[in-house]
Design a protein that fits this description.
Blueprint: H1 8-15, H2 20-26, H3 41-48, E1 61-65, E2 68-75, H4 77-81, E3 90-97, H5 99-102, H6 113-121, E4 129-136, H7 142-151, E5 160-165, H8 172-188, E6 192-197, H9 207-223, E7 227-228, H10 230-234, H11 237-240, H12 254-270, E8 273-275, E9 296-298
Parallel strand pairs: 3-4, 3-5, 5-6, 6-7
Antiparallel strand pairs: 1-2, 1-4, 8-9
Helix pairs in contact: 6-12, 7-8, 8-9
């Protein structure tokens, strides 16, 4: 079984990106046959505290804009309300999720898959500006996020909303009901939405998670919403055995984030209207990860009232 083939060499490779004290504390007796860190909150916080500074998670939205891919802004509700309603010349992509999408597990904020995706897709050529918003709250659920989106965040009017949810919802019915309302809200404002099957480490064998994924697939088929199987990708043999993907059963390491980003970015790119000119040469994904086609993208959405 693949979960028993995890080799010490891959762990040592990824450990170069972690703080030495963290590795020594987690593995005082060696690292054999380990593919995710134990859930130890105080240690995980010390390792994954972005850039050594406390990140305020009380409702602010991280925004990446244009070519400044490593310097996000943190927008308040008032900032969002001041955004221009008309977005001609701008492509807005939003991400909605809990701690996994927020980026817990990444050593720095620039390591998170949302930041990496923006780096892959920006800057959009031809005068278009790419803005990427991370509407994610650690420890939340689809019910909390739906309420926040409908009451507050919808003013950003993303052209595409990528929803990565499953883990924190109590059951499949609740998740499906809230995703339905969310998808209809995004579509009402002429945006597009996709559902991502939120991944877990393969050691975490959850019947509840499988039921939620089945419900998301069913809803996606009913609403004609794309469903992207991140769980299947990260648990595939070639990806799972490529390095240390997980800090624990839910949160991706910086290496896991680096594999997730190009996989999602490639699919996001296909939902944005291509042009014939050639995009800038992409840099960033490690050699073992899939690469984007060199295509350009323009704003594909009609005027919104």
């Amino acid at each position: 079984m693949k979960r028993n083939r995890y080799q010490i060499g891959t762990l040592l490779f990824e450990s170069l990106r972690t703080k030495i004290f963290g590795m020594e504390t987690i593995f005082p007796e060696g690292v054999s046959h380990v593919n995710s860190f134990p859930v130890r909150k105080e240690l995980r916080r010390s390792i994954t505290q972005w850039d050594g500074a406390h990140i305020d998670k009380s409702g602010k939205v991280a925004r990446y804009s244009g070519a400044h891919v490593l310097v996000p802004e943190f927008l308040s509700v008032e900032d969002l309300r001041r955004l221009p309603q008309e977005t001609d010349g701008t492509i807005r992509v939003g991400f909605l999720g809990t701690s996994q999408t927020f980026g817990v597990g990444a050593e720095t904020i620039s390591d998170t898959f949302v930041a990496r995706i923006h780096a892959l897709l920006a800057p959009a050529p031809g005068g278009a500006l790419l803005e990427t918003y991370n509407f994610s709250i650690p420890g939340s659920s689809s019910e909390i996020l739906l309420r926040r989106y409908v009451e507050l965040w919808h003013v950003a009017r993303p052209d595409l909303l990528v929803v990565n949810l499953s883990n924190n919802d109590p059951d499949a019915e609740t998740l499906s009901r809230n995703l339905r309302v969310l998808a209809l809200e995004v579509q009402r404002e002429h945006g597009r939405v996709v559902f991502v099957l939120e991944a877990n480490s393969v050691e975490w064998d959850s019947q509840g998670l499988r039921l939620k994924h089945a419900a998301v697939r069913k809803l996606g088929e009913e609403l004609a919403v794309p469903v992207w199987d991140l769980e299947g990708y990260l648990s595939s043999n070639s990806i799972y055995d490529s390095g240390m993907l997980w800090w624990d059963n839910v949160h991706l390491s910086s290496f896991g984030q680096s594999l997730t980003a190009p996989w999602l970015a490639d699919r996001i790119a296909q939902l944005l209207q291509p042009r014939s000119s050639v995009m800038r040469s992409l840099t960033g994904p490690p050699a073992c990860t899939p690469k984007l086609d060199h295509t350009t993208f323009v704003h594909s959405r009609t005027h919104r009232s």
